[in-house]
Amino acid sequence: MISRDNLRGIAGVMVAISIIGTIHLLKPGISAAPNFACGSTSGQIAEIDVRTGETGSEIARELADKGVTASFESFFRVAVGDSRSGRIAPGLHKIDMEICATDALLQLLDPKRIGNLLAINEGAWNSEVASKLSLIGYSKKEISEAFKNMERPKTFSSLEGLLFPAQYSFDSGTSVSKILQMMISRGIKELGIAGLSQGQGKFNSQQLLTIASLIQAEGDTKDFSKISRVIRNRLASGMRLQFDSTIHYIKGTRGSVFLSTKSTLLNSPFNTYQRYGLPPGPINNPGSDAMYAATHPATGKWLYFITVAPRDTRFTDSLDEFNNWKILYKKNLRAGKFGGKR
């Protein structure tokens, strides 16, 4: 899902390329630095650990020392002459050995070669973020303590919703606390861009973020602004939201479009089938599109919406029409149009 401002690239601190004290390497007349042939490789892999704030000369030295490039000078000259070198992300990069300096730069810019790349999907739960941190090598104890002790903005009662979904890269010495802070800082920035930070009307910033999380969970990007309007219309009319996504959040289950009647009776403040108003906090970490929709609802009188088939979500203010669509939804569900998941 592509975000509105196209911010799906690697998030994190960019690496600066330093030329201090090495300008003599670029003077005319200096002989060419030893370099491997482009397109060739030894077939072996080296791990290059780019640390936050590391200079171009330090990266060049490690590449040469580990046999990636033929010389320090070959990579340094390429890095100084190519502005893309400023986009090398911190992290443990798996790079082919015995390659030319230009190929080395291209591989360092390839996010697929970063071993400790943390990719967080839009709508991910904090529990899922914790699981991904565990998969890249952090201990459950360190993860648990970091979540427990992490400070959050005063206007928010939970970290849920504040860990902005994006791709994050970091060097091998980065703590879980620093990673979470990186995500929260990005989240706070996105809140400001979308207009959630100061609240809107009767909704404070946390309530708007909660609305954004519901929007994220309930539909596709093309329908976000309509879902935002349905939420506001239901709240204004005193109706329960009755969103399946809140039940899935309570149960910690994904992958099923079917919701049993028993599930709707669960005793939880997040159960929008039983409780009026918004849940007490976000039910996931929404992306920028959902945040924007939370403060920019479409114009309409809709009170109901239902996805009758994949990519076919319909909106209405008529309960009779909604019930007819519900029959169609059940028919399509039995026919396996939702992938056979019940």
TrEMBL record:
The chain crosses the membrane at residues 7-26. Pfam families: YceG. One of its GO terms (molecular function) is lyase activity. Keywords: Cell membrane, Cell wall biogenesis/degradation, Lyase, Membrane, Transmembrane, Transmembrane helix. GO terms for biological process: cell wall organization. PANTHER family: ENDOLYTIC MUREIN TRANSGLYCOSYLASE. HAMAP family: MltG. This is Unannotated protein.
